[in-house]
Amino acid sequence: MRTAYQYKLRPNKEQLATIELWLELLRRQYNYRLGERFSWWSENRCPVNACPLMMPIPRLRDNPDYYSQKKDLVNTKDKFPEYKLIHSQVLQDCIKRVKLAFDRWFKADKNGQKLGKPRFNGIGRYRSFTYPQITQDCIEENQINLPKIGKVKLIQHRPIPEGFMIKTVTISRKADGYYVTLSLEDKSVPALTTKVEPTLKNTLLIDMGLKEFLVTSEGESVPIPQYYRKSQQRLKTLQKRLSRKKKSSKRCLKALLAVAKQHKKADATPRRRQLACGQTPRRRQLACGMLTKRGNAHQAVADKRKDFNFKTANELLSLI
Predict the structure, then answer these.
(1) What are the pLDDT digits (tens) for 14-66?
(2) Are 23 and 129 in contact (CB under 8 A)?
(3) pLDDT digit string (tens) for 225-242?
(4) Helix ranges, the chain (H)
(5) Which bin fits 305, alpha (ψ -120 to 50), beta or left (φ > 0)?
(6) Alpha-carbon distance 188 to 184, whole Å?
(7) How far, in Å, CA of 155 to CA of 160, rounded?
(8) What are the sequence ranges of the domains in the chain?
(9) Does the reported pTM lie above 0.70?
């Protein structure tokens, strides 16, 4: 059985600066490796119906695959010594993300549909990194020991179940702070099977609608919570306050933080605001405007919807 537990992190200033440095360096590495694949793909392809009859054939370069790019990380560390600060397996996981993104572009899923072309990540768009391996005793009381970062305080609101082993650790950045996601596995727990014979007792019909969230075969209905529409008035008030503030001022950044907390935008993190405050007035103005226009993720509304869906599904299962 495979599951995941997520906890809130409380890093100090030094750990915060290290995490932000890693994210920025990994973003650049991701864009560079993705650019290598795009360059090879554009230079070594030719349309079948538009290929010229006479043309010089250039020397074909080796296809930059997962293994060749991972092997080239040694040269990257020689040219850019700051990449030596990042854990080696974290860098290799960045190359793996490039491979998965490129493979999804060419290979179809189980429904026969292909995804879009991978995009380069802008500033602040690379929001997580993963440790593929970690020691099982990395969590001690209310701290987690992350390689090359140190012991970071976390809020462990629920203990890890007995028998589960930590497979991977992912550090992610959100608008309200930083989180750690532990991927847990216990091979002794059998996997869930869906081979159930439907009967009148264990069957419940559900009709999803527009006026009601759902209506069951027993006549019970669940109304639509309308989380986004309920938060629109609050968002309107905060955005109006933000529009009246002078750009690059402290009040502008404070009002921007209020809007970001309501939206829970992924770009407007506390570290991004610290970087903006330490820059020149012109750069602060650009950073303030950039944070205002980007990242309308509405994660707060998404969290409410996710919680509502889980609770509704739990109630439906209890009726069977």
Answers:
(1) 999 999 999 999 999 999 999 999 988 887 766 556 665 665 555 666 788 89
(2) yes
(3) 888 788 788 888 888 888
(4) 13-43, 66-71, 73-79, 88-106, 227-244, 250-263, 270-277, 281-293, 299-319
(5) alpha
(6) 12
(7) 13
(8) 2-12+125-185, 18-45+52-106, 197-320
(9) yes
